[in-house]
Design goal:
Metal Transport, Frataxin, Chain A; 31% strand
């Protein structure tokens, strides 16, 4: 995947995350600025997504830690253990926002 394709994939992924978060029952705010998506949960905890173009990864920072994801041609998978971004996000938002979301990224 070249740099342009990677950037488009990240943009599409962040947009899909925003669409899911728009359905929140609690007060969840988010701001996408220059490839950085910052999500602020009602309890003021944050989840931050950043594009890492040099290594072609999507990085995620949450209360539970920092995680790096590679796109494997079909989906985003965590580089440390292969966990899917969909599953990681479901767990993170359940913990931090107290809501169950279904991600299909």
């Amino acid at each position: 995947m070249n740099e342009s394709e990677f950037s488009q994939k990240v943009d599409d992924t962040l947009e899909q995350i925003e669409e899911v978060l728009d359905t929140a029952e609690t007060d969840i705010d988010f701001m996408n600025n220059g490839g950085v998506l910052t999500v602020v949960c009602e309890n003021k905890t944050q989840v931050i997504f950043t594009r890492q173009t040099p290594v072609k990864q999507l990085w995620l920072a949450a209360r539970s830690g920092g995680f790096h994801f590679d796109f494997n041609g079909e989906t985003w998978a965590r580089d440390s253990d292969g966990a899917l971004l969909n599953d990681v996000l479901t767990a993170i938002f359940s913990e931090q926002a107290g809501e169950q979301f279904s991600f299909d990224l």
